[in-house]
Amino acid sequence: MTIRALVFDFDGLILDTETPMRVSWQEIFEAHGLTVSDAQWASLLGASADPAEAYELLEAHLGHKVDRSSLRTRRLKRELQLLEAEAVLPGVRERIAEARAADLKLAVASSSERSWVEGLLGKHYLLGVFDAIVCADDVTQTKPAPDLYLEALRRIEVHPTEAIALEDSEHGAAAARAAGMYVIAVPNRVTACLSFDGVHAKVNSLAALPLARLLEIVTSPASG
């Protein structure tokens, strides 16, 4: 078996957008006297850049509906403000460079909208390095359904068993497993509390996982 591609999640894996999102929601929750645990919040991530469950938690606490559109606009403004301080996560550029040098295909599979993903990739000079970018706009179901990964693999013409998914959320890891791929979990500050059962390996940072070691993990007999 030969690995021919790496498929990256975006939010929380390439760029830690999830800490700014968590902080922006936490400020709203706290203003209304609501406490949401780290584990409960982390379990919501990976399926959407604007999880409906967050609004539902607030509405259940308040006992009435909120103006979701207005709240989203205000919260997103705060998230983008916090996001200005974020850089591409450690090891991402190095693993991309190694993969390109090894002639591996590169793709992104994200549950976020294309405008969000491509806008931030462009800001950090990463837009042109991927052979395919598949976003929520491109599929009927986002993670944990396998659709995003299957579409990314179709576009780069790689079989699932020839590709490694790099994921920071349990929804994303489940999607990649359902697609039949090898899965490496790389939790961020928000998702570090999750267990990531069923992945082939879990590492604290891509900076700790050179491509040679990554390939060794998934091609060892134990990973089959």
Structure, explained:
This protein is α/β, with parallel strands linked by helices and 224 residues long. It has helices spanning 18-31, 38-42, 52-62, 68-83, 92-101, 114-123, 147-156, 170-178, 211-219; strands at residues 5-8, 105-109, 132-134, 163-167, 182-185, 201-202. Helix 8 links the parallel strand 4 (163-167) and strand 5 (182-185). It starts with a strand and ends in a 5-residue tail after the last helix. 43% of the residues are buried.
SSE arrangement:
Blueprint: E1 5-8, H1 18-31, H2 38-42, H3 52-62, H4 68-83, H5 92-101, E2 105-109, H6 114-123, E3 132-134, H7 147-156, E4 163-167, H8 170-178, E5 182-185, E6 201-202, H9 211-219
State the main characteristics.
224 residues; alpha/beta; Rossmann fold; globular
Short description:
It is built from 9 helices and 6 strands. α1 (18-31) packs across α4.
Structural class: alpha/beta
Strand order of the largest sheet: 3-2-1-4-5-6
Q: Any low-confidence stretches, pLDDT <50, length ≥5?
A: none
User: What top-tier CATH class of the largest domain fits best?
Assistant: Alpha Beta
Average pLDDT confidence is 91
Q: Note the quaternary state here.
A: single chain
| Secondary structure: number of strands | 6
Strand content: 5-15%
| CATH fold annotation of the largest domain | Rossmann fold
Beginning-to-end CA distance, first to last residue: 10 Å
